[in-house]
Amino acid sequence: MTDELSPADRKLMNSIRSAYAAYRLPTDRQLVRRRLWPWTAALAAVAAVAAGMIVLALVTGPPSALASWTSAPTSSDPEALPDATVDACRQQAATLIRVGERARWPEDPSLRAMVAAPLVAYDERGTASAALFADGQERAAWICVIIPVAGQPPYVELGGGSALVPEDLGSIEVWTATAGWNSDYGGRWEIAGRVDPDVGRLTVHTEDDREVVATIDDGWFLAWWPSEAEPVRLEIAAAGGTPETIDLEDRYAHEPSCKVSLFGRFCLWH
Amino acid sequence: MNEADGITIDAITRTAADHAQDFADFYATNRDTVYRAVLLSTRHPQRAEDAVQEAFTRAYDRWDQVAALDRPRAWVTRVALNVSTSWWRRLRRERADPPDRPGAPDERPMDRELVRLVWELPLRQRQVVALRILADLSTADTAQALGIAEGTVKAMLHRALRRLRATLETTREER
Q1: Helix (H, G, I), strand (E, B) or coil at A8
Q2: Looking at residues B34-45, what average pLDDT do you find?
Q3: pLDDT for A68-113, tens place per residue?
Q4: 3-state SS of chain B?
Q5: How far apart are CA B157 and CA B136, in angstroms?
Q6: For residue A192, how many C-alpha atoms fall within 13 Å in the half-sphere facing its CB?
Q7: What is the DSSP letter of A79?
Q8: What is the pLDDT at residue B160?
């Protein structure tokens, strides 16, 4: 089979282009990202379930820097995080603010909150880690994933966003649940929020059968895992109490929800 | 001026601003082309819209690397197709009929017929048409995006065009 196309083929191809030219991306949504709940936003991107050959073709790439990931945190001490890395996380938010200003996108107040928000939880799993920055007043929570890169500053990626209405699940509030994807490191999920003082252990069960033990620190929780498998269930164990299970799978159905973000107005139909 | 813990927003370098402008130009130039290809591949307008935006978000996240590629549009198209495929499989049903084209109120009947015939091609042929014709990707880029051999791309394109031409001729004769 050759790639040579006859004049008739080329004419037909041009007709197809012409016939489809009227289809245009709507202009009222500048950038859209998929989110688990309406109030979560992802700067980093993505969320696709890793299925299909196209996905596999894209995900296969350099060896994953996340191979050392552990289901339970290996450290939750924020002191383990160098100041330079904290700065790098905030720098990314500052950069995005500047980009938004330049592109005249509607401002996302949570980004400015991120620049000033305190680091409230740290979760290290193997060589990679995540840091939770949260602002209780602005109800904004941002998760910065930090992946070491040999001989260079670590790769940092910001996910999260405004928590307009934190999801009240009883003894916890989910402030953000965000999926990310990177062609070097593949998919990733993060989830974070507030937790009652009597909760001793929080485990996230994922679609790919991981049981991810969350970091709990001074009323905040944070967990992340290196896959595009969504969280399907939370298990919460209160001190001296009966474990509680929260099913997340039925939380995908939402009426269309629109909000203004850094990238403009976007709507979600989940 | 916004300042916290040593970070000054106004201190962001001009490089970042140029970077944003480059991306904005790239987005404006390519968004519709990528959208058409993903729309035809998925046959789901909403999912195609989301996937295309998602793909551009990813491109923005790593714009330095994507901009340095020989064919950044091919990269974005590939990612959009990836995302749309995943979402489509999980969450949505595709549309049996092509959506209305708001930009074509005075379209010719033949255009409408051609849109429908292309829409109804078998999946693989449709994907090849979407990428080779609508996204204007090369045979090699199309093969890479779909995870198939270049020879298969050529064969699928040939079959699709042959099928379309035959159907169009039949339609004309019936009129």
Answers
A1: helix
A2: 86
A3: 999 999 999 988 888 988 988 888 777 767 766 655 555 666 677 7
A4: CCEECCEEHHHCCHHHHHHHHHHHHHHHHHHHHHHHHHHHHHCCHHHHHHHHHHHHHHHHHCHHHHHCCCCHHHHHHHHHHHHHHHHHHHHCCCCCCCCCCCCCCCCCHHHHHHHHHHHCCCHHHHHHHHHHHHCCCCHHHHHHHHCCCHHHHHHHHHHHHHHHHHHHHHHHHHC
A5: 13
A6: 35
A7: G
A8: 94
Residue A176: strand pairing partners: A192
**Rounded distance between C-alpha atoms, residue A226 and residue B144, angstroms:** 25
What is the pLDDT, as a whole number, of residue A152?
A: 81
Residue with tokens 């729309």: B39
Pick the more confident residue, B4 or A61: B4
Cβ-defined contact of A45 to B57 (cutoff 8 Å): yes
* CB of A261 closer than 8 Å to CB of A163: no
Sign (positive/negative) of CA torsion A12, A14, A15, A20? positive
Q: B85 vs chain A: nearest CA distance in angstroms?
A: 8
CB A174 within 8 A of CB A167: yes
Q: Of all residues in chain A, what percent are helix, strand and coil, respectively (each to 5)?
A: 20, 40, 40
Out of A51, A103, A182, name the one closest to residue B24 (CB): A103
CB A121 within 8 A of CB A215: yes
The average pLDDT across A228-253 equals: 76
Of the pLDDT bands very low, low, confident and very high (cuts 50, 70, 90), residue B152 is: very high
Between A186 and A68, residue with greater pLDDT:
A68
Query: What's residue A163's pLDDT?
Result: 41
Give the pLDDT band (50/70/90) at residue A120: very high
CA B54 to chain centre: 12
User: Does the beta-carbon distance from A98 to B40 stay under 8 Å?
Assistant: no
pLDDT at residue B35 tops 60:
yes
Contacts of B133 in chain A (CB under 8 A): 13, 16-17
Handedness of CA B48, B51, B53, B56 (dihedral sign): negative
* Structural tokens at position B8: 């000054």
pLDDT, residue A167, reads 66
Which of B32, B58, B61 has the most A C-beta neighbours within 10 Å, making it the best mutation to test the interface with A?
B61
